[in-house]
Amino acid sequence: MLAGDITGDGSCGHGFQNALILLLTFLESKKVQTFFIKGNHDENKFFGLVMNMTKDFQYVERISSKIIQFKEIKFLGLDFDDTESITRLNDIILHNSKVNFILAHCSWRRRIRLLDFDTNYIITGHFNENIGYIEDKVFISIGNDRLEDINFVTINLTKSGEKITFYNMNCLNDNVKLTNAIKNKNNFSMDIASSDITDNKFSQSLSIIRNIKNKEMNEITQYDLEQIRSIISLNSMTFFTDYLGRSKYYKIMNKLSETHS
Ligand SMILES: [Mn+2]
Fold first, then answer.
1. I want to staple 205 with a disulfide (CB 3.0 to 4.6 A). Which of 57, 105, 226, 236 is the partner?
2. CATH class entry, domain 17-194
């Protein structure tokens, strides 16, 4: 699964489309099932070339806005354009049936909404290396923001359990323990639903914000307010306005300022 921003956008006078075509040709020759989507830096002239060069491939496929089944596993791809428009994203969520993997390219503030999908895994590119386990869904984000970064994750699905391994990740946000482990050993494996994943600030913030989504203002308890207060300084606060709406956000902020911690 290639999570977008895979060709470059020509901003340096060139893209990475030739390297990508080589990689995809290699994967096709080895019969490795490969799925990809379009990121915000995949300019049409480069991305179109990749599409054209791979159009007859049997094992390499763009899965944007469609569900593809491979063996018993269902995948749904979401381009940056699919996640960036709330109307479009909500429409896809509404008409989506259960899948196992969402492969997306999604901006930071919009990520909380991906949890509305009925899925086991959400994997997004763009930026921010992170992992969380929220509402029985594994959320993984990866990015290659520095030249030395070649970041990837493997997920082993076996009868005895699911294991996730991170490679080369340098900046797993809100999870110092994981970051240090990866820095020392270059990779780090964990079981899904282990405390490394469930107890980090990213997972907690998403859960707290989603919990008050369907509550009216008069249903928000003192406990809820304390929970919100605990995440208020984190950059995940931007989920608030995007997911709950500005009006509710300001009402909650007012209520918070009226109460003392
Ligand atoms: Mn991007």
1. 236
2. alpha beta
pTM (2 d.p.): 0.89
How confident is the model over 146-179, as pLDDT tens digits? Answer: 666 677 889 998 888 888 887 766 666 556 666 6
- Positive or negative, the Cα torsion across 226, 232, 233, 236? positive
Ligand 1 center to 250 CA (angstroms): 29
C-alpha to C-alpha distances, 30 to 57, 62, 141, nearest whole angstrom: 12, 18, 27
- Cα of 81 from ligand 1 centre, angstroms: 11
State the pLDDT at residue 22. Answer: 95
Parse the chain into domains and list their residue ranges.
17-194, 212-258
Encode pLDDT of 245-254 as tens digits: 989 999 998 9
Distance 126 CA to ligand 1 centre (A): 4
Structure tokens at 233: 């300084």
Cα–ligand 1 centroid distance for 5 (angstroms) = 5
